[in-house]
Design brief:
Elements (H helix, E strand, L loop, with lengths): L1 H7 L2 H23 L7 H52 L7 H23 L8 H14 L5 E4 L6 H10 L8 E5 L5 H9 E2 L11 E2 L1 H4 L4 E5 L6 H13 L1 E3 L6 E3 L3 E6 L3 H6 L5 H7 L2 E4 L9 H12 L5 E2 L1 H9 L5 H14 L5 E2 L3 H5 L27 H22 L4 H8 L3 H11 L10
Parallel strand pairs: 1-8, 1-9, 2-5, 5-8, 10-11
Antiparallel strand pairs: 3-4, 6-7
Helix pairs in contact: 2-3, 3-4, 4-5, 5-6, 12-14, 13-16, 16-17, 16-18, 17-18
The chain binds adenosine-5'-triphosphate (ATP).
Protein name: Nif-specific regulatory protein
InterPro entries: AAA+_ATPase, AAA_lid_NorR, Homeodomain-like_sf, HTH_Fis, P-loop_NTPase, Sigma_54_int, Sigma_54_int_dom_ATP-bd_1, Sigma_54_int_dom_ATP-bd_2
Keywords: ATP-binding, DNA-binding, Membrane, Nucleotide-binding, Transcription, Transcription regulation, Transmembrane, Transmembrane helix
Length: 450
């Protein structure tokens, strides 16, 4: 900006030069075309005024835009910060704006907005609204730039494989192969040959030589899923491969070097397994270079409304989720995590009537709320109870935020994305809705019709 203002001092001189040049050129051209023109002083004066006026006007417009462009951008940014400070003020009461707590809060809010945008841009297939999930994706984005081995932990169905493939596609190896092996799904006696390949005749049935997954992943990423289910003998070979990048086919004699980045995942507690000597400690440390823990869905219920929408779209359904159904989804504990939620959404979509998914009578009469299989649960369906936000402050906050999001999304859906109308439906001021939409990072555009 300072550079532009500095250059701005040259503008009058450039302007004068351009004007004189334009007048001279036009004057000469008209004199050549109409010999009488050169004799008429009035005509020449009129020409001088018209050309210099035109040039000055055009040049001032260009200069003005040139100088004010960065200023506008600066003012826009200042306005955004001002809005965020408004939010902080609302959330923090009468504390002075210089209070370090407010500044911290403000900083957190700014970095949250940025990290949510980053996460969405970097991992478009991964639905992520909650803070814990944003942290997961921030870590994933950081480690993707390196070749470090990653260990992803989390309960079954939390999205470990999705994050692993996201890391690959954001890495320098994205053009290379991404090979996934589920160690728990392959019988122990076949796992080594699957991972390292085998030579012809290495064992009964090995009628031809076959490359292993390490070999196939050369130049790319190997995803070792359920790594905790690997037999100890195979663990030793994997360790060797990780240490020197070499492996030998079963029945082979020559070791070959491969350039493979390993991302491993497990839903088991590897530290306990190490203590019980069922998992090698050296391999645990070798894998755990960069740990990423994905929290279970019940610890990030804010993600549920967006996940429901995501699965409806992914399954090609043009359906609306009734608020009481969404409330049911939000209040359950989901022991099978996102995979289980996806299955339930699919089932509810099949049973939807008039384009709306509603809870089945047996779901409501059974009191299917916080604990899906807990028949003894006496929670009233569709209403948050102490059981749904069992112990701490965080649970209550998370639960309330999910409720707030759900109500706002339903109102936006109903109003076709018109915020003033949605605010009316919710009985709040448009400004208050606007703040909430910002805080919860709801994409209003998604609800706009047409
Ligand atoms: N944040 C998310 N956004 C969208 N879809 C998700 C998300 N997390 C998980 N899924 C979907 O949920 C399903 C289960 O995810 P995934 O297979 O990655 O889980 P996992 O933790 O690897 O499970 P397991 O431990 O059983 O192998 C997949 O269909 C995946 O696409």
């Amino acid at each position: 900006m300072r550079f532009r203002v500095g250059l701005g001092f040259l503008v009058p001189f450039v302007l004068a030069g351009v004007t004189v040049l334009s007048v001279l050129v036009t004057d000469r051209a008209l004199a050549l075309l109409h010999p009488g023109f050169a004799q008429s002083m009035e005509a020449r004066l009129a020409l001088l005024c018209a050309v210099s006026g035109g040039v000055c006007f055009a040049a001032s417009l260009i200069t003005f835009r040139w100088l004010t462009g960065p200023l506008e951008r600066f003012l826009k940014r200042a306005r955004e910060i001002n809005v965020l400070s408004d939010v902080a003020e609302r959330d923090t009461g009468d504390k002075p704006a210089t209070d370090p707590a407010i500044l911290d809060d403000l900083f957190m809010q700014v970095s949250n907005v940025l990290s949510a945008l980053d996460a969405k841009a970097l991992f478009p297939d991964i639905v992520c609204h909650s803070r814990p999930m944003r942290e997961v994706l921030t870590r994933a984005a950081k480690v993707a730039q390196s070749d470090a081995t990653v260990l992803i932990t989390g309960e079954s169905g939390t999205g470990k494989e999705l994050v692993a493939s996201g890391i690959h596609s954001r890495s320098r190896r994205a053009e290379g192969p991404y090979i996934a092996v589920n160690c728990a799904a392959i019988p122990d006696q076949l796992l080594e040959s699957e991972l390292f390949g085998h030579e012809r005749g290495a064992f009964t049935g090995a009628v031809s030589a076959k490359p292993g997954k390490f070999e196939l992943a050369d130049g790319g990423t190997l995803f070792l899923d359920e790594v905790g289910d690997m037999p100890l003998a195979t663990q030793a070979k994997i360790l060797r491969m990780l240490e020197n990048g070499e492996c030998t086919r079963v029945g082979g004699t020559k070791a070959k070097k491969f350039n493979v980045r390993v991302v491993a995942a497990t839903n088991r507690d590897l530290r306990t397994m190490v203590a019980e000597r069922t998992f090698r400690e050296d391999l645990y440390h070798r894998l755990n270079v960069f740990p990423i823990h994905i929290p279970p869905l019940r610890e990030r219920r804010e993600d549920i409304p967006a996940l429901v929408q995501h699965f409806l779209e992914r399954q090609g359904h043009d359906l609306h989720c009734a608020p009481e159904m969404l409330q049911l989804f939000i209040s359950r504990d989901w022991p099978g995590n996102i995979r289980e939620l996806a299955n339930h959404v699919e089932r509810a979509a099949v049973l939807a009537e008039d384009g709306v998914m509603r809870p089945l009578p047996e779901q409501t009469s059974r009191g299917e709320t916080a604990h899906a299989d807990d028949a003894a649960s006496d929670a009233t369906p569709g209403h948050p109870t102490a059981e749904h936000s069992p112990t701490g402050q965080t649970d209550i906050d998370t639960y309330l935020a999910a409720m707030e999001r759900q109500m706002i999304c339903a109102a936006l859906q109903q109003s076709g994305g018109i915020q003033a109308r949605a605010a009316e439906l919710l009985g709040i001021k448009p400004r208050s809705l606007w703040h909430r939409v910002k805080k919860l990072e709801i994409n209003v555009g998604e609800y706009k019709e047409g």
